[in-house]
Specification:
The structure is a single chain. The chain is mainly alpha-helical. The chain has a single domain, classed as Amino acid/polyamine transporter I (Up-down Bundle), CATH 1.20.1740. The chain is 76% helix and 0% strand. The chain contains 20 helices and no strands. α15 crosses α16 (344-363). The two termini are 42 Å apart. Bound molecules: phenylalanine. Phenylalanine binds at residues 21-22, 24-27, 99, 225-226, 228, 231, 233, 324, 327-328.
């Protein structure tokens, strides 16, 4: 079976698809709350430095390994770096497997909140509705948790089975512009609120005295997650890239868009929260619930045009999550396709179904089933969901990322990486020398620090 490998229809199509992979719950959900927990300002600056100094070089490393070999993660690492390095690709496939299994649970929530807020927009906000209590009951409902995740997984499988052009790229071409427009509408509305000045001050005040070592490491760990690095997703996306495209230009656009969207989402949420007296304290008690407990009601009570923007906002969350779940499933499915010659539709269904077996446990671990909810592998992490997230964020991504920096910076030859990076062009503001310095020295030291932090100090990035 020697089929021609599919390619993105254009450089723009690739940028949209890869940005779609990067922009997800990490931007809309995780970044705002870790910014909150780490007291904004200095944390945001450190995060930006991590993105530029570690994220960007690893992004380029993954893209160039993928484009050079035109293979998915396992075969790409084996061919570009050496036979044993196929294991690093396999580690990435496993990481995609784990992340998707719990990510799709939260992704499913966006469907419920979209339906719920759409209902409120039509018939009005119900009087005396307690969102906190409603959320708690929702978490306990096994049927709803499994059902919503199943819908989301089915849609993801349907898109991945349609292939690179007709599935992944086409979805990104439609969803990403919509996502961007919704985000801009929300931003305009939120910035007109009186809390917006305080929100921006919170995000950009430079108070380094409150910055802890853990915060620095958390910023670095999140840089991996949000850019979809350390697990081969960008290797796979790069493998559908043609030699005419500039890896550096595309990589830079993805990194910049992802960062902008995370900052916009954070500005929106904090502007709303800071505009309501007492809300700051309430959120402080449960920053994780910001997106699903604090925000829904505020749309109807505080945000200008909020009754229209609320369902749009949850649609945005759903779209952002979908373009990420597609990428996660593609990493696993493309392994079956390239490595075992499985036909694409079959590969998408098989990988999706296997991953969903774990999803069932994760979705029942939020209180619905005792055994799953009290399951504990990592100290202090309760339930299957929390343990999977902890394992992926604290172990899988940093280790995968570290090995990829070693592979690209130290094992692959200078000639090999230089020729590949230059192919398609390097814009004037960047140079091969700069990339090589970052990938050989800066990135491995920084990522090595995360791993040491996790092992020695038990720092938690999940
Ligand atoms: N980057 C995505 C987010 O921020 C998550 C993701 C990780 C997607 C790895 C694909 C691969 O939500």
């Amino acid at each position: 079976m020697s089929q021609q490998r599919e390619h993105w229809s254009s450089s723009f199509g690739f940028v949209l698809a890869a940005t779609g992979s990067a922009v997800g719950l990490g931007n809309l959900w995780k970044f705002p709350y870790i910014t909150w927990e780490n007291d904004g300002g200095a944390f945001v600056l450190v995060y930006l430095v991590c993105i530029a100094a570690v994220g960007m070089p690893i992004m380029l490393a993954e893209l160039l390994i993928g484009r050079k070999t035109q293979k998915s993660a396992v075969a790409a690492m084996r061919e570009a770096v050496g036979p044993a390095w196929g294991l690093v690709g396999a580690w990435g496939v496993l990481t995609g497997f784990v992340i998707l299994s719990y990510y799709v649970v939260i992704a499913g929530w966006s469907l419920r909140y979209f339906a719920m807020t759409a209902g409120w927009t039509i018939s009005g906000l119900p009087a005396e509705f307690d969102l906190g209590a409603d959320f708690a009951a929702f978490a306990l409902s096994g049927g709803k948790q499994v059902g919503l995740a199943a819908v989301f997984m089915a849609v993801t499988i349907g898109i991945v089975r349609s292939g690179v052009n007709h599935g992944i790229e086409r979805t990104a071409r439609v969803l990403l512009p919509v996502l961007f427009v919704i985000l801009l509408l929300l931003l305009f509305s939120a910035l007109s609120l009186e809390g917006s000045a305080e929100a921006l001050a919170f995000m950009f005040h430079m108070d380094f005295s409150s910055l802890r070592l853990e915060s620095v490491l958390e910023a670095l760990g999140h840089a991996f997650f949000t850019l979809s690095l350390g697990m081969g997703a960008m290797i796979v996306f790069g493998s559908y890239l043609s030699k005419r495209d500039s890896v550096v230009k595309a990589g830079a656009i993805i990194v910049i868009l992802d960062t902008m969207i995370a900052l916009m989402a954070t500005a929106i949420m904090f502007s709303v929260i800071f505009s309501v007296p007492g809300m700051r304290e309430q959120v402080g008690a449960s920053p994780v619930g910001m997106l699903f407990i604090s925000l829904p009601e505020l749309f109807y009570t505080t945000v200008p045009f909020g009754n229209l923007l609320a369902p749009l906002f949850y649609l945005l969350v759903g779209f952002a999550a979908l373009t990420s779940t597609i990428a996660l499933l593609e990493v696993v499915a493309s392994y079956l396709i390239d490595e075992h010659g499985v036909e694409r539709t079959k590969a998408a269904i098989i990988s999706g179904a296997c991953i969903f077996a774990i999803t069932i446990m994760a979705s029942l671990s939020l209180g619905a089933v005792d055994g799953f909810s009290t399951f504990e592998v990592f100290d202090g992490k309760q339930g299957v969901f929390a343990n999977l997230d902890h394992f992926a964020s604290n172990w899988q991504l940093p280790i995968g990322g570290f090995l990829i920096t070693l592979a690209a910076g130290w094992v692959m030859t200078r000639e090999a990486t230089e020729a590949e990076l230059r192919e398609g062009g390097v814009p004037g503001w960047y140079s091969y020398g700069a990339w090589r310095f970052f990938i050989r020295y800066v990135a491995p030291v920084a990522v090595g620090a995360i791993i040491v932090a996790v092992i020695a100090f038990g720092v938690d990035f999940s």
